Amino acid sequence: MHLLGLAVLAIHRDACTHAPTPAPTTPAPTTSEPTTPAPTTSEPTTPAPTTAAPFSLCKTLVDGKKVYLAQMVGDAKKYLGYTYCANCPANAYAYKSIARVNKWWHPITVATIPNGSLGLKMDNGRFYSRCETCGNAANNVVQRYTNWQASTSTHWTCQDVSETQLRLQDFKGEYMTRREFFGSIDGHFVYSSPLNATDDGQLWTVALTAP
Fold it and tell me: Compositional bias (Low complexity) at which positions (predicted)?
């Protein structure tokens, strides 16, 4: 009887010791619901302000354009041109088609030159040029050459002064300038002169039609 009890106890102990271990369980995969991102509202953008390029009177002088160059002399508008002179009296200027500013107007045809300067062709077929060994007064502006390629003295650089006025600089750095009055032509001779910011004789306006 005692032995039987020990046997039962041993069997009971073995049953406790060797109880099967349950197999591990793997949780079933879960599928998350797709999420829709909340709509975003972009901040309104303000375009950067644009600044218009300043008006350039010089840039309107394009190749082949016909213009009239003028100045205010007192209360009257006078024009760059020349006088057709026949049997003029002898004088220091010799009347070699000297440029002048007076009441008569003459159209000028613009020629653009690859170096950025301009040729100014009169209706007599000649170009305004600074007098270089031409027999006139020193630095007179004359009509001498029939093409701008003949001499750099025909090259004028346009410089904006305002939206309505410009200066014309010659190849030596001086400016086309209205100078002294000459009674027999009822007008002013034109020279190349150093820059003078207060001299209105260096300021030219552009007209597209004759008065």
Answer: 28-51
